[in-house]
Design brief:
The complex is a heterotrimer of chains A (228), B (241) and C (504). With 228 residues, chain A is of the alpha/beta class. Chain A has 13 helices and 6 strands. Chain A has 2 domains: 91 residues, no CATH class; 120 residues, Rossmann fold (3-Layer(aba) Sandwich). In chain A, the strands form 2 sheets. In chain A, strands 4-3-5-6 form a 4-stranded parallel sheet. In chain A, helix 12 links the parallel strand 5 and strand 6. Chain C is α/β, with parallel strands linked by helices. The chains are: A alpha/beta (228), B alpha/beta (241), C alpha/beta (504).
Chain lengths: 228, 241, 504
Amino acid sequence: MRLLARYGIVLEFPNVQTCCGQPAYNSGYWKEARAAAKTIINAFEDSDFVVTPSGSCAYMIHHYPEMFKEEPEWQEKALQLQRKVFEFSNFLVEVLGIQDLGARFPHKVTYHPSCHGSRLLGVKHEPMALLNNVEGLELVPLPFAEDCCGFGGTFAIKMSDISGAMVAEKAEHVIETEAEVLVGLDMGCLMNIAGHLRYRNQPVRVMHLAELLYEGVSYSDEHTANRA
Amino acid sequence: MSNARKDWLQQLDEASKQKQEQFLNGIAAKLQRPRMTQKPQRPLQGAPEFWEQFELGEVEKLEMFQRNFEAAGGYVLRAATLADASNIIVDKAVELKAMHVLRQDEQLLEQLGLEQAMPQVKVRSWNDDALEDWKARAAEADIGVVLADYAVAYTGSLALLSSKTKGRSVSLLPTLLFALVPRSSVVTRLGEVLKPLDELKRLPAGIHFVSGPSRSADIENDLTIGVHGPGIVYTIIIDEL
Amino acid sequence: MSTQQTELKGTVKERAQLALNNDFLRQAVKFTTERLRSGKLKAAEEHGNWEEWRERGRQIRLHTIAHLDYYLGEFANNARENGVHVHFADTAQDAISIALQIAKAKEAKSAVKSKSMVTEEIHLNQALQSIDCEAIETDLGEYIIQLANETPSHIIIPAIHKNRYQIAELLSEDAGEQLPPETSVLAGYVRKKLREKFLQADIGVTGCNFAIAESGSIVLFENEGNARMVSTVPKTQITFMGMERIIPSWADLEVMATLLPRSATGQKLTVYMSGITGPKREEDGDGPEEMHIIILDNGRSLQLGDPEFQELLNCIRCGACLNACPVYRHIGGHAYGGTYSGPIGAVLTPALKKNVAEWDDIANASSLCGACYEACPVKIPLHDMLVSLRRRKVEAGHDHPLERVGMKGFGTVMSNVKVYHRALKLGKLGQKVVVRDGGIRAKIGPLKGWNSHRVAPSISKQLFREQYGELRSELDQQAKAADPAVAARMREWLTGRDGGASHE
């Protein structure tokens, strides 16, 4: 929010919003997912753009029209919402045309492209563009970056051992890069990987791209102020 | 075939034709429409249009075939004439101390004169004797010699179309295979061989594309050559044929 | 017929646990799938325009399946013209009974087989053995699996879960002498041994990668040459094909030949691609004297006319989704419990079995990451199908009672923000008992599985929604005028959108 405010964009957080309903949708509980979806659709009815810090939630909203096949008026509303939902980095780069925020972040960073945002929603070049324009940031490639971290929502609970093996492999690759920071676009995946890194007492800092950019911009601001 | 057996097969076929109607009607019902009896319209067929335009020059075509065939573990040699090709085969047979050579019953292959050039080796021509156990002969052969109908540059493949004189076993059972192909029969794309098959009224019973030696990666993904088919495969491209 | 292979032991979760505790299996599967998937990516890139080819492949498959009655009829009639005896089988039992009739009439003592997933599906080997006809797998990997009395754990690399030492042991026992664990020696032994079997066999059994409607031909892709042996040497050939294997013409085969080998192994073409059009005729030099094709339904037609699953029949059995799948990589094929494993198996097995309760849990073994869809050469949306399977299971009342209660609660909480707030507050209060240093390590309740591998984050002391008011007023105070360039772009988007353009 603070980042976008720098460009004069007013962000609203409708307090009536809850969750997009993906856990229920993916588990097959569409009735329950529809209940959550209606809350979200109502919450954002008056917004021009809806920006979410999670590619997975944005992708979920793309499922809404299909969920309301039997409720045409809701399906229409769902389509309207789908058209205005953007994943955070996609909104910055594609809608606002911003690739360089003037941020400075002198650390070694590796990036995990989350499956839903990157593979299914097609958000691939945006985070790269944003990260490449951060001064001092050393971006190290993550081996097998596109592999799923094993989160998968309720999958991590229901098939916890398989999920555990997957996140262990992902964390292994993160540690291999010797990066100080792991950055991503999806809170679910980040929580999963961070949880495993913490379980193994690994000091890698896990951040959302927005967090990293904000910290980088603040750092730049302070520097400029000091020099002045 | 005995009459009883013929009758039995005929019964099977009759039962199958009835079953076919029921089976296909069931499919149409599942697709929620009446049975389709007319050939459906097809907006798209075969490879993408841009691909049909792809055509390599003469030199590039030969180079690409060689590169791909060798990358798969095969060998490609050039010969100016049939006589040169014959010398290559004879030299190899002598070098490997081959005892049995089997060739297809093709006139061109007869002109190689292998029988005369290697009197010490048993050179046979596939199927020229109705009483011979040809499968056994093919299985014991050290070297098989066949005439390929085409070579496809882009995939590095030989195309072998079977006929009375072109037995399928000759390219399959021997340990080492020589395939002769006229330079004019090297094409760029697989489709150049496949598409004309749609126009033929009756196809050869066996159409085999061969892209190198027999291989397997079934043990620890470790590549092994010569599992069931020939382990050594030479293509000889002949300029004047 | 033995039911040993059809019986499911435990749940997917339990079978996965066994696999996860088998380090060798995990390493072997990981190593090979990684190699195959890099090979595939390299081959697709080298070929170029991969998306266009994928789309073309998908279109050909969609068209054929949508007109399957026509093309299957055309195929059967043309195959008969070529002298083939064509048979239709609704079920596995029907297919077996036809095959046994043929084998009995031939008084067959042995049958050599090339790789065929359909024959695995119907358990042909046990059936042939029941009439004292020895069934011999001749694909190297399949031969090994048969000696071990197991089933394939990968569509194209059946023995992916075995190492050379285990294989050497199996083959040594078969040979009656000690063979060294060297690939070339082991393969050499199998070549020699099976040579005799090919020459003695009464029947050759093949699968079918594609069947060409316009000419009544079958097409086989392979690397070893055993499928050629099986379809050339024995006097009788029986080919088993799934009813969906059809493509209209040889021109279409070029597309399939472009997609299949590249997706399966990264090859430009398999060493052998063989089109077989009928048995040996007067004008042929060799080939089988009698040829049968058994066309099998066995649950496939259940997908027809089902908008969510019809595309499942487009599958060309390349195995690319297995190689791309992070779950498959960790648990291997046997954990899936069915003939087909990996993402395609997770959907196909319940689909072919009409989604009976017994197979329900397979659909849960996926994180829905979509890697399978991305790898699929004919673009089957397997990740969406998994969600549909889960939905149908819930609708059919086969869900777990505890999960149902939880999800009902989810619906109630998420549809009303007041209830949602109360739930969060309750959560904050409740977690006080277990939170240490901002995280939860205790392996209790629903977090038991999660916390066996991770530390769970606690709910923040101050939620974003609680801080929002403050943040908003802070930002309002320093409010900037909109950046003109940015504002212009936003307006542009809004106009474009109202003009009907949608964001993809």
